[in-house]
Amino acid sequence: MKRCCTCKQEKEEKNFGKLTKAKDGLNPICKTCKNSKALAKYYSVLKPNHLTVGTENRICVLCYKESNKSQFIDRHCNECVQRKKDILARKIEYSERVSLAKCEKSLKKALDQEKRAKLRIEFAKKRMNRADDLLVVLQKTKLDRKLELQRRGIDPTQYYA
Questions:
Q1: pTM, whole model, 2 decimals?
Q2: Where are the domains of the chain?
C-alpha cells in the first residue's frame, strides 16, 4: 500500500507507475491522478477552445479540478484565484513587516551608535583627567625627589635635566 501525494488516498502499488529515481521505485502520483493531470494539461494548454466550446465544465490549470464554466476566471477556478490573492496579500504584508522591522532596527542601531559615541567621549574625558592627575602626581614626586636630593646635599641637575 502506498499513498498518492495528489489525492492522498492509499492505493495498491500496482496503481503507481515506475520511477527509478524514487526510493521505492514507484511514482509518488497514482496513475489516475497522473492521467487526469495530463488530460487537464492537454485540454487547457493544447486545446483551450475545447474547454469553452460545447462543454459546460472546464479543468483548472493549477489544481486540475473540473468545474462549471461559471466558476472560472480565465483558465483558473475561483478557488485558485482566491488562493493566489491570499498568497499575494500575505507576501505584501510580510514584506511591509520586514521593511518596517529593518527600519526600526537601523534606527535603533543609529541610536545605539550615538549612545556609544557619547560614552566613548565621556570615557576619553575621564581618561584624560586621570592622565592629568597622574602627571601631577609624577611631577610632585619628581619635585619631592629633587628636594630630597637637595636636603642630602646632592646636586639634582645631575639626575634631572
A1: 0.34
A2: 2-74, 81-158
